[in-house]
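[Automated response] Your request has been received and processed.

Submitted sequence:
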Amino acid sequence: MKDFVVFYKDGIRWIINRNDSEKIILELKTHAILKKIGSYNLQTGEGSSTKGQTVKSNTVRSVEKILINGDKELFFKHYKPKGWTDYLKFSIFGSKARREWQNGNTILRRGIHAGEPVAYGEKRLGAIVSDNFLMVKSVEGSVSLKDALINNYTGDNRCFRNRRLLLKRLSLFIVKLHSNGIQHKDLHTGNILVNLQSALEKGNEDITRGFSIIDLHDVRCKSRLPQETMLKNLSRHLYSLTPYCSQTEILFVIKEYLKVIDPDLMVKTVIKEINRRILGYKHIHMLSRSKRCMKKSSEFAIRSWIERENSGCYRYKVYYKKVFNKDLIKEAVNAHYKAKLEDGEGLIKNIPRISVTKFPANVNNKQSGTDDLANNLCTKEYKCPKVFSQIRETIFTPRGKRAWRAANGFTTRGIVTPRPIAYIRVKKSWRLNCSMVISEYVEPATPVYLYVVNNLSINRNIKNEENKEQAINGNMNTTIDRIARKRYFIEAFARSFKNIHKQGIFHADLKGGNILVKEISKCHWQFFYLDLDNVAFRKSIALKKVRKNLIQLNASLPNEFSFSDRVRFYKYYCLKRKLDNRDKLLLKKVIIESIKKKHFWKPKLSS
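Generated structure:
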């Protein structure tokens, strides 16, 4: 006798576990289990006791938690094909629902705890799979590993011991997966469930009993895994642990894993290799998140419109964040053209290649969830005044698009930049006419070189007696106070600058005019990075590029930033109190090249 039942309903072929078939078929007949999910809007049947709760919904899939007849809790998944490539993949290699069904049954047979698949359904148009669905049993009493690490075991010694025990058993669970030939290609903290009571129970014969895996459509089940594949899969999981575990805890997981897999492996060599892979996964993940701004998703949307004028027909295509009102974008574009035409109050800059305007974001234009929107928006237009520049920007990536992607890349990496709102591409015929980026207008904020001149210049001619008198009278603007404040500023600025390079970002024009500073309090500043159309994201920054950025910044800071201030900045950048010979040599090159540029810094050199 087969272990499953085949059932047809509304053009969908369902494969159902025989043990659960009676209740599932009853629900399918009453349509209750397909209650308004994805493109299906089927009415709930009479007498059905199904209750639904949406867990997740995006452009890739929808997940709904359902309760059948009050005693069986299931997750109903609808995997949404994104285009013809998905239709082709589902038809050749099997749909995601089918793969998860097969992998789930294989994993359970090998003694690994997982969400048990109950049924899957496919809707076909001839040989093409047009839609697919899956039902999986809920793993009772479990939370995600992410929630377990965030919400539990912080504080006293007992909590520390429990956390260590949890991480040790986690490493043994990964060993069990790999020993059974199971490679989960998306083994992050959200796809591992933990029953804390079972996971921390002492004296268990199966100490991994409290752990389960879910989202099995991206799993490979083999007879055995090569050691290279196991370390690669472990590195993928360890990357997902980095936001919730310290470096010491991650090393502990690696060592516990290696004790079982192969005690003869060189631990230091393996750790070095794993850290290299973690850095690579971080780079790939960040690039992927940065590119989302060019696709339709739960966060971003795309719209188009056409405007006909005497000079021709202009086609607009807009990529924008959904939390912002789309009508606000069109108003900002119209206000930009108006300010440019009339040389109005909102015009900030207008040169042959670039125009920058300011547009007031009225309260009526704000959408729900955008209460923190700045009072003004900034529209930056990258113009193509000549035919050659239009062709070049059409063939290659436009400057506006590069700036939009870089701004979202900065935001993804936690680096402060004026919040990007929309990217607009304007085409006339087949050629790119111009591109625009709309972002928040940061106020009050000042370019770094102006802030140094206006707020941090020190008059060293004030007499010491006057300093003492001012300090006694409570005047905090004494020379001593300004020196201390300037040093705090240098430290904050250097750390912000260091973070850019630490995140693998190279800004080809990182000078003082492209960095805004906003004073939050007397000794607290926020730095905003501008002109992002020439930014590259790398795993790490080469020393040559670091030197180039330091030269650009050093040459663009005025004489009020003294030589001692520059050395102090470099020390904070290197995170060293005393520079070694290599650092001194680099600093010397930076100073010589900065002076050659003859920009803002023009020190008086002794003959």
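Summary generated for your ticket: Residues 36-50, 460-476 have pLDDT under 50 and may be disordered. The first strand starts at residue 4 and ends at 9.
If you did not submit this request, please reply to this message.
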